[in-house]
Amino acid sequence: MRVRKLLKLRAWSFAFFKMMIYPLTFLLYSAWVQETFSLEKLREFLLLLLSIGLYFVGGTLLNDFCDREYDLRTGKATGVESLSGVEVFLLLSTSISSCLLLAWIAAGGWALVLGMGLIFTALYSHPTPRLKERGSFGLLSNTLAELSPFLLIQLSQGHFALASAFFLLFYFFFSLAGILNHQLDDYAADREVGVKTFVVGVGYERSLSLLKGLSALTGFLFFLLSFFLFELPYFSLFFFSLLLLYFLDRFGFLSLHREPLRWPLYFVDFIYLGMFGLFPLYLSFVLAVSYPTYSLLLIFTLFCECVFLRKVSDRVLNWVRKLEERS
């Protein structure tokens, strides 16, 4: 198995540069709220993060392998098409076994939560059950697979405060809206190759209306969650700065957004920018300043956020260029 082919797999970048930031945010919040700072706890956190990263690698690899024929017909390259079935099996079994082993070391029996998440992923992707093409069951199984790392963190840390419950509820609907939005983006390609996702079955317009409803609900839950987060140092400054940025852009003073303004989808983009873009950077920085041994979490966060930070810097540079053109 050539190293170059492995590095080209979409599973690596998708797992660590896109999906990882969601449970990482929840873990950083849990670390701050519990105030149990020690080298042993830091080791546990890092093991959990590595296991979750490998969980996403395994899940993405399984999904890409099951969808490889459809992806080839639509011209979507994931890297799996260049590997043999044996190579994919070896990589998949290695990532899954390593994921469960690390989770077991960090969280004991709660590692089974990731095992359940992998079962949901298999049910969603495998050609036999193929819940991806079974309407709302596909949406629900995919959402539960993405929620599993949150449940692992929650159960392993034993922190069952109301704020944590709201965090999980908020992410459930945020994830559900994100999956629906992804299916809307793939609507034309899925129809072309005969993939009967929820959106293909229900129709584009009805699915878009549902997405708007889910987005409005996600925004409402974001405000409820924010009330619990005000206990964090300087969170009020962070929260109101985000709102100010939203309203400035909403009314055309910044023009940072790439698409026409659409409420509430547009606002959910700013929730993503705040909660899963800037918020984990803020949390990891506060933790590192308060407890220097936790600087490793800051480094890990910067690693996972590097793609996001590059996109933000590109947006800011484009905005500066527009200001220069106007002047």
Describe the secondary-structure layout.
Elements: H1 3-7, H2 10-19, H3 21-34, H4 39-66, H5 68-74, H6 85-107, H7 112-125, H8 136-157, H9 162-185, H10 187-193, H11 198-202, H12 204-229, H13 235-250, H14 265-290, H15 295-304, H16 306-326
Helix pairs in contact: 2-4, 3-8, 3-14, 4-6, 4-7, 6-7, 7-8, 8-9, 9-12, 12-14, 13-14, 14-15
**CATH first level: which class?**
Mainly Alpha
Question: What structural class do you assign from the helix and strand content?
Answer: mainly alpha
Report the average pLDDT across residues. Answer: 84
Rg computed from alpha carbons, rounded to a whole number of angstroms: 20 Å
The number of domains:
1
CATH topology: Farnesyl Diphosphate Synthase
Characterize the largest beta sheet: strand count, sense, and whether it forms a barrel: none
Rough outline = globular
Number of DSSP-assigned strands: 0
**Could you list the spans in which at least 5 consecutive residues all have pLDDT below 50?**
257-263
Number of discrete helical segments: 16
CATH architecture: Orthogonal Bundle
The fraction of residues in strands falls at: under 5%
Q: Can you give the helix content as a percent range?
A: over 70%
Give the termini distance in whole angstroms: 55 Å
**H and E order:** HHHHHHHHHHHHHHHH
